[in-house]
Amino acid sequence: xxxxxxxxxxxxxxxxxxxxxxxxxxxxxxxxxxxxxxxxxxxxxxxxxxxxxxxxxxxxxxxxxxxxxxxxxxxxxxxxxxxxxxxxxxxxxxxxxxxxxxxxxxxxxxxxxxxxxxxxxxxxxxxxxxxxxxxxxxxxxxxxxxxxxxxxxxxxxxxxxxxxxxxxxxxxxxxxxxxxxxxxxxxxxxxxxxxxxxxxxxxxxxxxxxxxxxxxxxxxxxxxxxxxxxxxxxxxxxxxxxxxxxxxxxxxxxxxxxxxxxxxxxxxxxxxxxxxxxxxxxxxxxxxxxxxxxxxxxxxxxxxxxxxxxxxxxxxxxxxxxxxxxxxxxxxxxxxxxxxxxxxxxxxxxxxxxxxxxxxxxxxxxxxxxxxxxxxxxxxxxxxxxxx
Length: 388
What we know:
Elements: H1 21-29, H2 34-38, H3 60-68, H4 78-81, H5 88-112, H6 119-129, H7 136-147, H8 152-173, E1 183-184, E2 187-188, H9 190-194, H10 196-217, H11 225-239, H12 244-254, H13 264-274, H14 276-290, H15 294-321, H16 324-327, H17 333-336, H18 342-346, H19 348-365, H20 374-385
Antiparallel strand pairs: 1-2
Helix pairs in contact: 3-5, 5-6, 5-7, 5-8, 5-20, 6-10, 7-8, 7-14, 8-10, 8-14, 11-14, 12-13, 14-15, 15-19, 15-20, 19-20
Family: Belongs to the FPP/GGPP synthase family.
GO biological process, one term: isoprenoid biosynthetic process
InterPro entries: Isoprenoid_synthase_dom_sf (IPR008949), Polyprenyl_synt (IPR000092), Polyprenyl_synt_CS (IPR033749), Prenyl_diphosphate_synthase (IPR053378)
């Protein structure tokens, strides 16, 4: 079924603040304290020079959590401006930080179990799967499950699965026949290290292993089999003709077309499949595993579609405004390849406004849930405030 389209009005300008991701990840690996990190700005300079849009420094409690993940905010959130104890964006980032270790451990365990038959293939899988990253998609699975009264144990196998699928899509996207990129997450892409043949197989193996993780590891004592089956069904839809594969095909078809032949509706179609599909799966799967109602799941889908589009707009803007070091992949490639992007069609400033409006609409979808939706609302802001 074709995903729905949206019409939007433009609101006040958004803000994307570039942050040196590699610097702060390096500091995190060294186990520096938040206080040590807060003494420098995103570029490693004295904090007195400021690192926020319009020269305004963020409250330290907000800044510390965000900098650990290499992101920044313009302070557009009312919670930040008015100095509340903790903004929703901070809550979301702290949730990411808190869950990242357990997600990484589960990912490591999953690929350890696949290493028996072919060591090189398993090594290639591990190379990309364990290469770092913010783990936004698996964290969204856990957050949505929590929102509807579930626990991590119910959702962790699906969280692992969604990161496997995401990693597969990155490996395949980077291939010469697709986006032809040499760098991902700050190091050579999979095919540059293991060759195209092994990279393709590593992606294929991760995709098939994702289904096994859900089917074999979801605890039947906590999740009725009917829910697990529904999650598996949705994952199949997410990656195939109604999801990632279709979106990538549409994206390739649009590449090189003159800007006046690409409409906003066309871009929405491409990225509701290519980008929003996996975010939509992450959020709805977490809700399903916890036993959310049909109406709740519909609401989660609508929310995810909007933040999925906003996520892609942010990516397109960052391709124009950020550096290769900041992104961890080659900056400016979309422009060079004449890909169908939001800045190319709307312009840079209108793209930022468009992303802000999408997030505003997405938040409206969750208004009825009140504080229960706090984490997901924070993720919505984080998606357009991130720097990579």
